[in-house]
Amino acid sequence: MDDATSKRLFTHPAMVRDLLAGPLLPRELVRDLDLGTLGKEPAAFVSDRNRQRYADMVWSVGYRERAEREPWERLFLLLEFQSRSDLAMPLRIMVYGGLLMQDLLRQRRGVGPNGELPVAMPVVVYDGETPWRGPVRLAEMGVRRFFAACCVVLDLKRIPAEHLTDGSALSLRIAIEQCGSLDELVALEARLSRLLARPAHQSLRRLFAQWIREARLPALDADPSERRLLEDEDMLARKAEIWSEEFRREGREEGHRELLRDLAELRFGEEAAPAVALIERIDDIERLRDAGRWVIECRDAGELRERLEAARWRKGSDI
User: Fold this and answer.
1) pLDDT digits over 117-140, tens only?
2) Do residues 100 and 57 touch, judged by C-beta distance below 8 A?
3) What is the pTM of this model?
4) H or E stretch including 93?
5) Is the dihedral of CA 180, 184, 185, 188 positive or negative?
6) Is there a contact between 84 and 59 (Cβ–Cβ < 8 Å)?
7) What is the CA radius of gyration of the chain?
């Protein structure tokens, strides 16, 4: 892993939303999250002895109103990035988690009125050449008292393809990590370009382009003539800007509908058909933009269809 460029991808909230909404994490831990409340947290902790320690990255997110949770509750996501197995990883995670909880208690932030602590979920993003061989539970290190303490390891090079079918930016990032040829990379990059075509995704496009240029092309032994794919700023940004300009220049909704149709089908497969039928009947550009946001936010095709149906009646639309 090029730790720096790979880590930078996860500074973008869209990548973290994909992680929380996708199939890679335990559903019992990420159920009923309100992804609109996602926020980045400080990753520097000060111990009681004033020693500063750093985790790689910390995000937090609240829960939906209908969830059986207290209003103050948030999930804290501790991300660690590894290119090699670490035999002490569960212990490191326990230390970071404990320091995080100390900070929250000290600041009276994210805790209950009687000092109740939030849930912290550690995730190790790993893309080493060999499978992860380190422990994931403290019990595996002989620390039996803390048998329930564990971390989730996302072994990027070995995540099965059936878990990468939602068409999200995170799934495409993992597929690019796993691809073994330049042809595969070009095909995946084309899908990524379409997904990130909107101007709002410009910063994430540039992060992807930098990662592909610095980490994936060298790993595939691309020769100099092949590196022209990512010369200058980045090919993702250039292609997306061209498509966005074409949509604006044409002054038609059809380009947006086509993009949403492709995106919905990439994310949800055949189950997207009822929602796609509703998208086809939208004739207002602002409603198409709403629908585009929902395609990204919704966890499944059923939720997308429900939102489109609700908008149909709320706005008096004939979609």
Assistant:
1) 888 888 999 988 899 988 887 666
2) no
3) 0.63
4) helix 89-107
5) negative
6) no
7) 21
